[in-house]
Design goal:
34% helix; binds guanosine-5'-triphosphate; binds magnesium ion
């Protein structure tokens, strides 16, 4: 299989509703996870651009559905984050509604990349979102982020804990990727996965 090379990246548009999203019939890969988990950083790393998606030390930066067109052949979608505790309830619910509407109605969504911060124990917001994905049969994979912040021992211990708790409710594990946007790791495997599943 030839390697997927990101030759062209362009921002297409930001939308609040699925009906406003780009209409070209192209496969889409979307990224979400708890606020501040590192979605925009990961997208920048995957695309090899430093400032494509806006990153921030303050959670809740991405509040829209952002479509990027890659190689004129597929869309990469930066979704808002969920579960940011300091956001007012109504805002938080609005973000969640936006994400859920997108994943349920995006007709050409090939796969959702759900990002989880490997440093933390499984969070309630992630657990609930995972249940929603399962119930609605949304295709997803997991990306554990910020692996540079832990030692190898801590990494494998946390990963095992996640796997164990996933297997409490799931029959089998989804594909799992590990990444560090800081150390630039995880990119190849994510690109290989996209290449392999591009239709
Ligand atoms: P929202 O859009 O606000 O929900 O956040 P996000 O998920 O897009 O996260 P973003 O990429 O903006 O990163 C949040 C913070 O985490 C920033 O301060 C990043 O520099 C930092 N960060 C992201 N990825 C990594 C990583 O792999 N390692 C380390 N050490 N820090 C990271
Ligand atoms: Mg973001």
């Amino acid at each position: 299989m030839a390697k997927l090379i990101i030759k062209q990246v362009s921002f297409v548009k930001s939308s609040t509703r699925i009906k406003d999203c780009p209409t070209r019939p192209l496969p889409e890969y979307a990224f979400t996870g708890r606020s501040n988990v590192g979605k925009s950083s990961l997208i920048n790393m995957v695309c090899n651009r430093t400032k494509l998606a806006k990153t921030s030390g303050t959670p809740g930066k991405t509040q829209l559905i952002n479509h990027f067109l890659i190689n004129d052949s597929w869309y990469l979608v930066d979704l808002p984050g969920y579960g940011y505790a300091k956001m007012p309830d109504r805002e938080r619910q609005k973000m969640m509604r936006m994400i859920k509407e997108y994943v349920l109605k995006a007709e050409r969504l090939v796969c959702l990349f759900l990002l989880i911060d490997i440093r933390l124990k499984m969070q309630k917001a992630d657990m609930e979102f995972l249940q929603f994905l399962g119930k609605n049969q949304v295709p997803f994979v997991l990306v554990f982020t910020k692996t540079d912040k832990l030692t190898e021992t801590q990494l494998s211990r946390n990963l095992e804990q996640y796997k164990t708790s996933l297997l409490d409710t799931w029959e089998s594990l989804p594909d799992i990727f590990m990444s560090s946007s800081l150390k630039n790791t995880g990119r190849e495997k994510i690109l290989d996965f996209i290449q392999k599943t591009l239709v």
